[in-house]
Structures are given as C-alpha cells and as structure tokens.
Amino acid sequence: MGKFTLRCAGCSARHDAWNRGCDKDGGLLRTEYQQKCLIPAPYPGIWKFIDWLPVDGIISSFTGGPIAYRSEGLARELGLKDLWIAFNGYWPERGAVLRTCSFKDLEAPPTVRRLMEQGGRDILVVSSAGNTARAFAHLSRLTGYPLVLVIPSAARDRLWLTPGDGSTEQIFLVSVEGDYSDAIALGELLAGQAHFVPEGGARNIARRDGMGTVMLESVLEMGSLPDRYFQAIGSGTGGISAWEASMRLIEDGRFGSRLPTLHLAQNLPCAPIYNAVHGGSYDERCPHGMYDAVLFNRRPPFDVPGGVADALEATHGSVVGMTNEEADKASRLFEEKEGVDIMPAAAVDVAALIKAEAEGQVGTDERILLNITGGGERLLRKTYSLDRLSTDISVERNEQGEGMLMDQIKEKLLEVRMA
C-alpha cells in the first residue's frame, strides 16, 4: 500500500503499513499521506475522503458520513455568531443517514475495509460499551465479515440494528458481568488467539482517520479550520483524530495555519482524563450513575506519545467535567433550538460549550465547531422497527472460562471465516 507511510508520533521512526504501534517508545503511529491536498473523490459519505483514509477501495454498501451546518437556533441562544455543528447520526432532512446514530459509524467501515485488503479472514474482536459494538455489527451485516463483540452486560440494550441489512450469523456476542474495562480485558484475551485480530482502539489508524473525516467535512463546509473544537470524550481518541486531521489540513495550506483549540468534555464524577489533567480520582462505583457510560474508559491513551496529553498541549486545549444535570439541561436546549434529539454523550459536549460561553472562554466572533457525536435515534425509531442482537454467552467478571468460550466462538465462526 503506497499511498501513505506510518510514522511514530513520538520518536518519528517509520513503520510498515500494517504495524499497530512503535516498539521503541510505545507511541501512536500516524498516517502520512502522499496526497497533501484535500480533494474530495466522487464517492459517497466518508469515502469522498479516500485519499486520507488508509484503504485502497470502498465498501459500496456503506454510504454514510458526517454532515456539517451553520447553527442558527443554538447560536442565537448562546450569542455566538459563527457556530457550526458537525452532526453524526440520523437526520435525513439534513442528509445525515448514519444507521446506528453515532459517529462510531465512521470508524468501522475503514477498519473492516483495511482488514479485507490485508487479505485475511481473521475474526475481528471488538470490545465496546455499546455504540462502537453497534457500528461494527452494522458493518458485519453489510459485509459478512466475522465479528466477536465483547460488551459489559449493562450495554446489552444498546445492541440494536436497523433491519434488512444482512445476516447476523457471523456475529458472536459476549456479555460480561462487569464494566467496560472487564470487556476490554476479555477482548484482549480473545484477540491474542490464533485466527482472531483486535480492533486496536486508539492504535487503529483506520479508526482515527475515519473519525477525522468529521473535521474534513466540516472544513469543506466552513471554508477554513475552526478556532475552537468541542467534543465529549471517553478514551479521547476522537480528540486525537480531530488534531491529526487539522494538521493535515494545515499542511494543505488552504484552510488556515493555526490548530483549533480542543475543548474536550467528560462526565463527572467518572472522568479519568479530567482527573489526569486537574488531579483527583474518579468514584470507584463508576460507570454507575453516569449520564452516558460510553464516556468512561479506565485506560485512555493519555500520556502515550501522540495521545491526548500531546493533543491538548499542541492545541492549547482543555478538559472540562460536566454533571448529569448540566448534560440533561443541554440536551433539552439543543433539541429545542436545533430540532433534533441527541445522544447523552453529545449532550455532555453541548453542556461544555454552554459553560465555556458563560465563562467567557470563547469569543462571540470565533468560529466554533461543535461535534455532535450521536443523534437522531428517536427519528430513526419512527422509520424503522429495530432488530436486537441476541447474546451468545454471558460470563462473570474475572471468571471468563476462556477455553469453553473459545470453543463456542470457534464452533460458530470458523466456518464463516473460511467462507
């Protein structure tokens, strides 16, 4: 694959196109594309940015992507003259057609396409608190790619899909009686076995560059980079992606020369990245009681080279903590002023913008990009009767019985893998 090279964000060492990390300093690997100008390709959705995705082809059955528009209602309410909204979800009247209502839909297609181009049929293992699992399940239905999902038991209600997209025979769902960290631990155990491959998390360049298309689409609409970028985060990978995409746009030379300031938000009191920046610790009961548990990750890529800490330093960014009450108020305000429902994680983001404006952290004339990472679920439910993924096996925390589990997964999926 000659369209890009991989370089460690820390030591700058070059790596093979299929490497997942740097063995010298553990830094994230970053794609350096031969094409330095943002030139949309004649493909739908995210595939218009194929020059800046680590794949050679597209998945034609997936046509979704981010959309961006200039706010009127919320901008007027907050007194902001140049507020733009990147909407990632289902809102057909604005052209938003992501079928799982989340910007995780931008991560799964390039990840699966990259695996397909790698030439194997290793079973993909994804650990998720809900939205990511739903996005990869949707892609598995579209492509038939074999998939193991490992989720905390509390996330089972999030595992719905729109009907008619294909079979779920190639999907194996494991529910862990624990939290997201327990799901990650079991996923790592499974992914280390023969015939299995990990999704990769923050180290997955396809995932990060897929999320980076939010910034690319927004800049095409705005005509320039924003001054400030707001997003709610769990692992912080979305913030890293926005930073990396912005660096490419600066290298293009047509969209500005200053990195947007990152304003990242977490949900108090379950906020490991907020604590890493400001001190303190999170409640041991976390993620219990969170406004949205997808925003909790015990092991975020904070201080690795190229991680969240570096993104904040490079952009003079900040991390704010928002309460459930602030997020709930923000959710209701956004729907009233913009006319569409948003997911709880996105409401934390809106709350952060409201707080920043109230405290004078943003200028009324500044160009601001607000990333609504999920929305339109109520609209989707009016259009589709949703299918739910059934759990194949439930396991207890720290008692996964991996031998029995592996046998069950192989029995269901190895024939699919060899097809």
Radius of gyration: 20 Å
Q: How far is it from the N-terminal to the C-terminal residue, by CA?
A: 25 Å
Mean pLDDT: 92
Percent helix = 25-40%
Proportion of residues in extended strands: 15-25%
Q: What are the low-pLDDT stretches, counting only 5+ consecutive residues below 50?
A: none
Envelope shape? globular
Total number of strands: 18
Major sheet: order of its strands?
4-5-16-13-14-15
Structural class: alpha/beta
Contiguous helical run count: 13
The biggest beta sheet is recorded as: 6 strands, mixed
Short description:
The protein has 419 residues and is α/β, with parallel strands linked by helices.
Question: What does it look like?
Answer:
- With 419 residues, this protein is of the alpha/beta class.
- 34% of the residues lie in helices and 18% in strands.
- It contains 13 helices and 18 strands.
- α2 (108-118) packs antiparallel against α5 (205-211).
- The longest helix is centred in the last third of the chain and has 17 residues, at 402-418.
- The chain starts with a strand and ends with a helix.
Question: What is the topology?
Answer:
Elements: E1 4-8, E2 14-15, E3 29-33, E4 67-70, H1 73-78, E5 83-87, E6 90-91, E7 96-97, H2 108-118, E8 123-127, H3 131-143, E9 147-152, E10 160-161, E11 171-177, H4 180-191, E12 196-198, H5 205-211, H6 213-222, E13 228-232, H7 237-252, E14 261-267, H8 272-278, H9 308-315, E15 318-322, H10 324-338, H11 344-358, E16 368-372, H12 377-383, E17 387-388, E18 393-396, H13 402-418
Parallel strand pairs: 5-16, 8-9, 8-12, 9-11, 11-18, 13-14, 13-16, 14-15
Antiparallel strand pairs: 1-2, 1-3, 4-5, 6-7, 10-17
Helix pairs in contact: 2-5, 5-7, 6-7, 10-11
